What we know:
- Helix content is about 40%, strand content about 10%.
- It is α+β, with helices and mostly antiparallel strands.
- A hairpin with an 8-residue loop joins strand 1 (about 30) and strand 2 (about 40-45).
Amino acid sequence: MSDASLAFDLERVQAYLERTLPGFEGPIEARKFATGQSNPTFLLTTPRHDYVLRRKPPGVLLKSAHAVDREFRVQRALADTDVPVPKMHLLCEDESVIGSMFYIMDHVEGRNFDDPALPELSRPDRGAVMDDMNRVLAALHMVDIDAVGLADYGPPGHYLERQVGRWSKQYRASETDPIADMDRLIAELADRMPEDDGQRTLVHGDYRIDNMIFQRDGTRCLALLDWELSTIGHPYADLAQVIMQWQMPQGGDGRGLAGVDRAALGLPSDEEFIASYCKRRGLNEIQDFDYFLAFSFFRMAGILQGVKKRALDGNASNPERAEKLGRYVPVFAEHGLKALTHRKGQG
């Protein structure tokens, strides 16, 4: 662990886990995953078993951000549902152990895809992976939140209204330079807010293929990761998150499908993915989808602005990548405005 600000005393961690985690035996080795901009994540290797430690980052943090305790709670609640998650072992709220709250979960062996074009797969397997991504999304939104003890996981009321307000404040708290398109997008989202249709489900908040682990030799999803933004809210926000990602440039930091011949590669179109989702959930249509898409671009711009601010403040998990991602804030703001303009033109 080369970054001293993120390193921790392995002997202290080992001693803590030997006291608190049944069946745990050291010695342990730790390796930091390159991904996980928000909450630093480490692979803990022991002779008998591999675990993952996910912690809050050091430094001054925005209120309600980096809530690893919420991540732990929601994944533990989903253990016996159709939503694949790693086994949760323990949550450590004692900051004296490593300097911040953390949790321990199983390490899920499998493969992770950064590029939604899935160039490493065959044509049939690309379609099968995307279909399983669709299956997990529909399963997530059909979880009985009362039965799994998550009815209070998010506040009641108008989800979009709440989220637009929250991310507007988060963006202003992290703002470094004025961005005219972002100012206009915030105003337009507040102006054109659709009425609450009453749907209230568990939402992931950052539903992307690179937050999923798939079978190493198959196409089934084994684990959905990175639940920091999860809450009780409107399911279409997650669906719009997928479509938003695909509208980004292919490769590199965009990790989208813009300009890709999806039919030739065996990948679903936006319309096909949405139709499969609706079929799984028994829905006839989705209203106000362009607003949800604009909201997704706006929220991602707010997230990336926070990443940029942490890089400038010296608190980023990966400073160089954080600064690079921060340059995309105006791009996401522009795409958000285009989505709303499309909706207005349809109106």
